[in-house]
Amino acid sequence: MGLLLQATYRWTAMLGPNLMLGINTGLYSYLLYRTGYVPKPLAIFGMITAVMIFIAGLLQMFGIIGPYSAVKGLLALPVGVYEMSLAIWFIAKGFHRENLAKLRMKAASSTIAR
């Protein structure tokens, strides 16, 4: 039973912070890119970092790199920079108000058309 719990812990510790972080970051970066809530270069940087952390997870999953290796740290560092820069952007600038207004108008017109 102990070995089963240890194996479960290892898999969840690998899937959560690595693969799921890459998928999650990729999805919301793509949505931020499409909606224009943040500058396009920032959203593109997020998509690139999402791929990097996903690759780090895959490399760890197949045993090519260790969970605490320097390579994994270097692959994961840009996603941390992206997350902090995104937080700073939202604190300093917020969402682009004109894009929010366009989305609200589009949503209102589609609701009225129904």
How would you describe this protein?
With 114 residues, this protein is an all-alpha fold. The protein has one domain (2-113). Helices cover 84% and strands 0% of the residues. It has helices at 2-35, 40-61, 70-92, 97-113. The model has no long low-confidence stretch (mean pLDDT 86).
Class derived from helix and strand content = mainly alpha
Q: Extract low-pLDDT stretches.
A: none
**How many separate structural domains?**
1
- The best one-word shape is elongated
Following the backbone from N to C, one meets helices and strands in this order, namely HHHH
Measured between the Cα atoms of the first and last residue, the distance is: 57 Å
Instruction: Summarize the amount of helix as a percent range.
Output: over 70%
Continuous helix count: 4
Number of strands: 0
Largest sheet: none
The whole-angstrom Rg is: 19 Å
Strand content: under 5%
User: What's the pLDDT, averaged over the residues?
Assistant: 86
Offer a few descriptive terms:
114 residues; mainly alpha; 4 helices; 0% strand; elongated
What is the structure about, briefly put?
With 114 residues, the chain is mostly helical.
